[in-house]
Amino acid sequence: MKKLLGALSVAATGLCLTTPASAQTEVTFYFPVAVGGPITKTIDGYAADFNKENPDIKVTPVYAGTYQETIVKALTAHKSGTPPTAAILLSTDTFTLIDEDAVVPIDNFATSDADRKWLDGFFPAFMANGQIGGKTWGVPFQRSTVVMYWNKEAFKQAGLDPEKAPANWDEMVSMGKKLTRRDANGNVTQWGIQVPSSGFPYWLFQCFTTPNDVLLANSEGNQVTFDDVKVIESLQYWMDLSQKYKIHPPGVVQWGTTPRDFMEGKAAMIWTTTGNLTNIRNNAPFDFGVAMIPANLRNGSPTGGGNFYIFKQASEAEQKAAFEFSKWLTQPERAAQWSIDTGYVAVSPAAYETEALKTYAAEFPPALVARDQLEYSVAEFSTHDNQRVTKALNDGLQAALTGSKTAQQAMQDAQAEANRILRTYR
C-alpha cells in the first residue's frame, strides 16, 4: 500500500510539473468599423502579432459596427456586468463614459518613467478630448481631422489653377461657381463643393464655426453656445452655399456617399475625414489635392476619431494587459504604418520621424496636410449627455439645411434643448 501511495504521489507530482503556471489574460477589444477599407484585416493582424509577442495575453477583436453602435453595445455590456476589457470609441464619448462610471483613467497604469514619457508623447490637439478633470481617460489611436479634397482635372476644365485650393470662404464661393456644371436642361452634373450633413453633421459644422473663431461648448462640457451670433453666421454661410450661391447640393448630403460622389466626378471639392485619404488615393481616377479647411477669421478644423479606453469592471490583470496593448498599438512605427494604410493621422510627432512615414510623405505630400492642420485644430464637440445634446444640434442643422427653419431659429431651438439637458451638470 505504501508503495502504491508513493507511486501515486510521484505521478501527481509529475502532473503538477506539466500544468501551466498561469492562464492567458483575455482582453476583449471592441473596435468600430465605420470607414471603408480593409481595416478589420489590419486589426486582426495587430492582435495576432501582439498575442505572439505576449503569449500570456490574448487580445480578441470584436467588430461592433459604427461608432454609435459600438458605444451602445459597450455601455449595454457594462450595465449587464460583462463589458469589454477595452474599446476604441469616439473621443467625444469621454464625458459619457465618465458619467456612466464605465472606464478608468489611463494614468492609473502609467507608473514608470517610460510609461509617462509615452503618455506625454501624443499630439496635444488629440489629447484635448481625452483629458478631463486632470486625468487621462483615453489615448488617441484612430484619429483624424476634416480636410478638403479637390479634383485637379475639374479645376483645369474650369480654368482654375489645379494646384491651388480655396484658402478662404470667399475663394470657395468664387471657385465653386466656376466648378458647378449644368447640362442643357439646367440639371447639375457637377457640384462645386459638397459637405456631408448626415452621420456627423455637428463635426462638419465645426469646420465652419472654427474658422469663424467660435467654439460650440466649454471645456467642462456643461454649456453650449449654439445661439452665439458667430455660430448662426457659420450656419448661414453653409446654407448659402446651396440656397444662395447654388454651388452645393440642396438638403441633407449623405456622409457615406460623399467620397464616392467625388471619385465619380459629381463634386469637384468635398470635405471629409482624412481617414478617407487612402481610399480616395487608391480609387480616384484623376489627380487630386488635399488642403486645410478654408479660413475665414482664422484657420482650423476639429479633431475627430477614436480613443483607446479601458473599462472599469474588467479585472486588474485584464486592465493591465489592455494598457500594454494600448502602448503597443501606438508605438511610433505602428502609428506610422497605420497612417499609411488608412489615411488617419499618426498620433505622435515621433511617428512622423520614422523612416516609413518620412518616405511615404516624400512620395505623397498630401499625407501631411492633416498633421499640419493640428496646429490650428480644436477639440471635437463634446458635452455631458453627449448623444442627446449632439442630437439637438444635428436636428437643428438639418432643419436649417433643408429650409424648414432659419439659421437663427434652428440654433435658438437647439440651444434651448441643450440647456434643458445640461442643467443638472452645472
UniProtKB/TrEMBL annotation:
PANTHER family: ABC TRANSPORTER SUBSTRATE-BINDING PROTEIN (PTHR43649:SF30), ARABINOSE-BINDING PROTEIN-RELATED (PTHR43649). This is ABC transporter substrate-binding protein. One of its GO terms (cellular component) is periplasmic space. Belongs to the bacterial solute-binding protein 1 family. Residues 1-23 form the signal peptide. It comes from Orrella marina. It is found in: Periplasm. Transmembrane segments: none annotated.
